[in-house]
Amino acid sequence: MRSIIPLAGLPVVLLLVCGGCVNPFAPGRDDTPAQSACDPHTIEGLFQCFQAAYTFRDTTVYGQLIDPAFTFVYRNYDVGVDVTWGRDDEIRTTFGLFQNAQKLDLIWNNIISSSTDSTRVNVVRGFNLTLVFNPSDIERVDGYANLTLERARSSDPWRIVRWRDESNY
Asked: Which domains, ranges and CATH numbers included, belong to the chain?
């Protein structure tokens, strides 16, 4: 009759022998600080940060893009009026979206128009947004974001001061 005791010690022996082995199914943790490819000091960089904030559902990144004097505007076609809100409501609404969506896929399309000076820019840009709440609840929004960006000095990052949503919903 063989003893089971040596088998009980097998995991410990394997751990000691293969302590330095790499498990391809459990790669090591990356402790390096996250490096962002976005830079809100450029207009395209601001759009990259915006996209990254949606992709990673990160309100910290998103909040850095929104100016304290921010105004969001959209048209409520049911009642025929424009609806507006400020920065606090925008951050709260976006946080709710980020919490409730399983996945957000934002694609920025071509810039339709822009007017620029060193501290103020108006950009109208097309976008496609796919919101996945669950596998059976997927929404797609296509439209245009009419954004006013400002910065105090040309060395400062751009911030969104006004966003008029011109979507198809």
From this structure: 43-167 (3.10.450.50)
121 has which bridge partners?
A: 116, 149
Percent helix, strand, coil in the chain, to 5, is 25, 40, 30
CA distance 63 to 104: 17
Which tens digits make up the pLDDT trace of 17-31?
444 445 555 444 444
Residues 85, 91, 92, 96: is their CA dihedral positive or negative?
positive
3-state secondary structure (DSSP) of residue 10: helix
pTM for the predicted model, two decimal places: 0.77
In which region does residue 74 sit, left (phi positive, over 0), alpha (psi from -120 to 50) or beta (all else)?
beta
Other CB atoms within 10 A of residue 10 CB: 9
